[in-house]
Specification:
With 364 residues, this protein is mainly alpha-helical. It is 52% helix and 2% strand. The chain has a domain of 144 residues. β2 and β3 form a beta hairpin. The termini are far apart.
């Protein structure tokens, strides 16, 4: 029987979902007080100001969300300092997205999917799960070798996930601008008893290499469009609202491109707009489940986090301003600007920052 990439990926993703459910449940059980582990994800939505969804423990999308996102005061319970689980999980989120949207999938996609699954299950010490995933990987590899006409002993290489090193103790303490503690606690703590009362702080997307530059060169071919849109959609789900320029840069980096030349600067934003996600008048791209008209949250960050101030939505900045005004009645305009900048890891009020603050203040 001829090898079918979609069928192979389907088997691999379903196998992975069966293995991850008990792993996640066991790791989170001490914090749950007998509640099902997807409770954490529902609380995470509340913390982020999103409408809570109904999550299913056996659904791979739910599982990968739990593996790749900070779970409030539980942190990253599946990861260590290398953030390998987050990186592999992010790659698998993109694969699952493409599979769910019936994108065109190749034999190489199948091999990569099974390789990600093998490495993830190896990390968790699931030898039985690894055995099945390895068989699927071997099957895909032999099909790929036959397809490419290469020797079956030369496995394709998968680039290592791009994992940012932890800052040293000196870097953590020297001249770091940190948000005021008042901005780090939410008033609706009772709605998130499992993951705590902290505000959801900004977490940058971990860049994972999902293809090479040839994918961008192939735009606007169908397969290339599907890959680019799937990556962009996952980044928006993780970081949104996100400025379209930042999203284009992160998407390009996922295909090994660090600098966009003019033609790609036009192609990528066009593909992003074709995802169907909301792109507002200020060019911020919003997750499907966030409405800029009703979203009342913001994500503080310190100065070590890579997020330019002018690439933070004025909606998000205005939400922070409302909290700061309510916590310091009668605060002056200059003090409010200073407190807002501090909330997002900034100290100096440049001309660009001042203009951005003025746009946000108009929304308060």
């Amino acid at each position: 029987m001829a090898f079918e990439a979609r069928h192979s990926i389907d088997k691999g993703l379903h196998h992975l979902a069966r293995r991850l459910d008990p792993i996640i449940g066991a790791r989170l059980a001490p914090s749950l007080g007998g509640l099902p582990w997807p409770t954490v994800l529902s609380e995470l939505d509340k913390m982020r100001g999103k409408p809570p969804k109904s999550y299913v423990a056996t659904d791979l999308q739910s599982q990968l969300k739990a593996l790749t996102e900070r779970l409030g005061n539980l942190g990253f319970p599946f990861d260590n300092h290398t953030r390998l689980v987050s990186a592999l999980g992010s790659e698998l989120r993109i694969v699952r997205n493409r599979w769910a949207h019936h994108d065109e999938l190749t034999t190489l996609d199948a091999w990569r999917t099974h390789d990600f699954a093998v490495r993830l299950l190896e990390h968790f010490g699931d030898s039985d799960g690894v055995a099945v995933a390895s068989d699927l990987r071997d099957e895909a590899f032999h099909a790929l070798a036959e397809e490419k006409g290469v020797a079956a002993h030369a496995e394709p290489t998968v680039p290592a996930p791009v994992v940012m090193p932890e800052p040293s103790a000196g870097e953590q303490d020297a001249d770091v601008v940190r948000p005021d503690p008042v901005t780090l606690t939410r008033g609706d703590a009772a709605s998130t008893p499992t993951i705590g009362s902290g505000r959801f702080e900004f977490e940058p997307w971990t860049v994972v290499i999902v293809g090479d530059v040839s994918v961008l060169d192939d735009l606007p071919k169908k397969a290339a469009k599907e890959k680019v849109r799937a990556v962009a959609t996952e980044i928006v789900e993780f970081e949104g609202p996100i400025h379209i320029d930042r999203l284009a840069q992160l998407t390009a980096a996922s295909f090994g491109v660090q600098r966009l030349w003019p033609a790609r600067e036009k192609k990528l934003p066009y593909q992003i707009r074709q995802t169907g996600l909301l792109v507002d008048a200020d060019k911020f791209v919003w997750p499907a489940d966030l409405d800029p008209k009703t979203w009342g949250e913001f994500r503080p960050n310190d100065s070590t986090v890579d997020r330019p101030f002018t690439q933070i939505s004025t909606v998000e900045i205005a939400n922070a301003m409302r909290l700061l005004k309510s916590s310091a009645v009668g605060i002056s305009a200059d003090d409010l600007d200073a407190a807002t900048l501090q909330t997002f890891g900034r100290k100096r009020k440049t001309k660009q920052f001042a203009a951005h603050l003025d746009k946000a203040r108009a929304l308060v």
